[in-house]
Design a protein that fits this description.
alpha+beta; 6-stranded mixed sheet; 5-stranded antiparallel sheet
């Protein structure tokens, strides 16, 4: 016969499973604010301030271009209104928000093939926020929501001299964290300094001492939005390097938080 503690435990497990199913359903709806006809390859892009950014939006169809010549495309930003409109084969920008004049465009040759992606030039911090891409065409219509996030990041340059491997990155914001690893994944001791520029952007200088020729090291520079992982192999003539950028996904963070919460509940009631 089950004890009261066991009954409570299994009841809570059942409740948590039900809540998990409901939250997964809510998350799937919240993070896929689009119809089946309009899609985006990245609904939460991170743009590098001062550089250009493509906001993806398209109809996934496989038909001849002539069938889509009457496509209507509208891009809007939640707090500013019209960003860009394309109809009857040409831009229609009479009521375009001033912030975007001369800074945005679609690609007509791509539009007739179902691709309404928007080029946003010289990204500003004020550009971050929610955008809505709406498409109407002969094969369907719909919209997709895109949450643009902004940051400042750059790939580091690496130099090797006197057994010291130096990594220098010219622009990061917010202030990043820097970690060095050897080729077996162990954290290495290094000295790192930051210089804050008047714009609030940081330059990064990090030095790994006692570095060895023929060894491979990894320099990881990261903020809450961006991670730059640079692998550096020291050769007899210099440093061979490659940098890979990865970007955070809000939905992954929420799922991770929820799973940790579930585990905490399970542990608490198991002890009971």
């Amino acid at each position: 016969m089950a004890t009261i503690g066991q009954i409570i435990f299994y009841s809570m497990v059942t409740l948590i499973v039900i809540l998990a199913a409901l939250i997964i359903l809510i998350l799937s709806l919240a993070f896929s604010k689009s119809t089946s006809k309009v899609m985006s390859s990245n609904t939460k892009p991170v743009a590098n301030l001062g550089e250009d950014q493509i906001l993806s939006c398209y109809i996934p169809v496989d038909i001849t271009q002539n069938s889509l010549r009457e496509m209507f495309v509208s891009w809007e930003k939640t707090d500013l209104g019209l960003v860009y409109r394309y109809q009857n084969g040409a831009p229609a920008l009479d009521d375009q928000a001033l912030d975007f004049k001369g800074r945005v465009q679609v690609f007509p040759d791509a539009v007739v093939a179902g691709n309404a992606s928007l080029l946003l030039q010289s990204v500003r911090n004020s550009d971050k926020g929610e955008y809505t891409c709406s498409i109407r065409s002969s094969v369907g219509q719909g919209k997709v929501h895109i949450q643009l996030r902004t940051a400042v990041f750059s790939a580091p340059t690496l130099k090797f001299s006197n057994n010291m491997l130096t990594s220098e990155a010219s622009r990061w914001s917010p202030k990043p964290e820097v970690t060095w690893l050897n080729q077996t994944g162990n954290v290495q001791n290094a000295s790192t300094s930051f210089t804050e520029l008047p714009s609030g952007v940081y330059s990064v200088l990090s030095t790994l001492r006692s570095a060895q020729v023929s060894e491979t090291y990894s320099c990881r520079i990261e903020t809450s939005l961006v991670v730059a992982l640079t692998e550096a192999t020291i050769t007899g003539t210099g440093v061979l390097r490659r940098t890979i950028f990865t970007f955070s996904v809000a939905s992954t963070l929420l799922v991770s938080f929820y799973l940790n919460l579930v585990i905490s509940f399970l542990c608490m009631f198991y002890v009971v």
